[in-house]
Amino acid sequence: MSRIGKIPVKVPGGVKVAFLNEEITVEGPKGKLKQKYHPIITFEDKGGEIVVGRKNEDKQTKAYHGLYRNLLNNMVTGVSAGFSRSLIINGVGYKAEVQGKLLSMSLGYSNDIFVAVPEGLSVVVDQGGKLTISGISKQSVGEFAAQIRKLRGPEPYKGKGIRYDDEIIRRKVGKSGVK
User: Fold this and answer.
1) For residues 70 and 139, is the Cβ–Cβ distance under 8 A?
2) 85-122 burial by CB neighbour count: b if 16+ within 10 A, else e?
3) Span 26-51, pLDDT tens digits
4) Three-class SS of residue 154?
C-alpha cells in the first residue's frame, strides 16, 4: 500500500468535493478547482474525509494512488486556506511594483521587465523587496514564482538577484589578493 495514498484526506467544513465523469471538482470559500483523474483510482467519501483507493497492484497504479491523493489534498487546502510563495529581490536598484495585472521589475538590465500576472493569482510587493504570490492552485503559484525567479537568479558572490524566502544561497569568496 502506498504510504502517501493510504492517508485519508480531511475535508474541512464549507468545502464540497464531487467526483463525476473522471473529474474531481472541489469547491470552497476561496474558489473552485477541477482535475481529471485516471479511472483506475477510486475515491470513497466517509463523512468528513475521503479515502483514495486503487483497483489493482500494478506499479503505475501505485504511483497514481499517491499522486491523486496529494492532488486532492492540495485542492482541498487551496480552496479552504490557499497557497502563497514569497520571493526576495536583493540588489542595488532592484525593485518591483504591481500595476493592475502587470508586474513591473527593475533587475539591473537596460530595460524594465513586465510580467502579466496569471488569472487567479495575486501579487503583493512590500517596501523591503519582498514579493508575495498567492492563489488557490499550488501548481500555478509555484510555477509563476519559478518564472519570476528565473528572470534574475541569485548569484553566489554578492547574493544579488531574486531568491525564494526560505532559500539559502551558498556564498563564494571572490578573487584573492595579488602579492
Assistant:
1) no
2) bbbbbbbeebebeeeeeebebebeeeeeeeeebbeebe
3) 999 999 999 999 999 999 998 889 99
4) coil
